[in-house]
């Protein structure tokens, strides 16, 4: 019997907090997938500054209560921003949308206390469009002993199989997403031609570079790594930072607040960009190497997606630190997937799986006790 195909919208606003990615896909929530539409909308300065300012106030669970009124106010503005984008897209596509996967904007994430706060009013969004909305994707995983992240590996596994089939690639394949945080999904052949996948957060992504840029000039990120390329990394400060910082376990998820940029205080803007970018690249490369060793894998392919893949200085630094000529490092765009929208497509896919009560997180991805579904199903109409 042929499985139902759903048309699903996925909305993703990552830890870079620069805007919203929206994707429309068709999928059965299993092995059928096609992309219909992708669009990005940047936050206006007012909302951007409110989001950044609010996140900087939230350091613990108590802060969520202390700033609850401001959180509610910004959440409404954020939700309406997403609704305007959805409205624009629905007018542009000739599709009847079944589901909306609304990830929201992460304000606070701490798996130790089973708390992950994403801004986004699913009930309001559902009532505005008379559509089923899936949100709060992380909480069920946290409730079952998981880290609440990363959640995209099941989608990475699907697209790796599509890429492998189209381009005859060899397993194992690693898909690395450089967003605010960097995560990796390793996909490999198991027994009886089955596919196994493992996932980890491996280090910072764009979060440190973006913070340095934001604090020093009127810009949000280092486009193409041009500022870093104009500077010179301070090797003494860089090596001290590397020696003084250690990711103790790749079994836990990471948050932007796990890192800081105080070690470059006093450097020029460009030199700070170069030093932070190399620090970030070192942690990513070191994480990838350690995870390969942990899983006894020798990947043939590293496929990069996310905004960080566009930072030429960062990417070249990762290549230099890896130093392995036997690994092919590719941009996912080379395989006919838009690397800007993998996460928004993923949450459209996760919305379908959540609706069908299919698992979205697994012991090998989030460290949950068993494979479980997630996401609140909201029908507020």
* Fraction of residues in H or I helices: 25-40%
CATH architecture of the largest domain: 2-Layer Sandwich
The third-level CATH topology of the largest domain is Nucleotidyltransferase, domain 5
Q: Which superfamily, in CATH terms, is the homologous superfamily of the largest domain?
A: ATPase, nucleotide binding domain
Order of helices and strands: EEEHHHEEHEHHEEEHHHHEHEHE
- CATH class label of the largest domain: Alpha Beta
Structural class: alpha/beta
Number of strands: 12
Strand content: 15-25%
How many angstroms does the end-to-end distance come to? Answer: 31 Å
Largest sheet: 7 strands, mixed
Model description:
By secondary structure, this protein is of the alpha/beta class. The chain folds into 2 domains: 6-147 and 372-378, Nucleotidyltransferase, domain 5; 153-335, 2-Layer Sandwich (Nucleotidyltransferase, domain 5), CATH 3.30.420.40. It contains 12 helices and 12 strands. The chain has helices at residues 45-57, 61-66, 68-92, 122-129, 139-143, 153-167, 207-216, 226-230, 235-244, 269-294, 312-322, 342-355, and strands at residues 6-13, 19-27, 33-42, 99-110, 115-119, 132-135, 173-178, 181-189, 195-204, 301-305, 328-331, 376-378. The longest helix is centred in the C-terminal third of the chain and has 26 residues, at 269-294. The radius of gyration is 20 Å and the shape is globular. The chain starts with 5 loop residues before the first strand and ends with a strand.
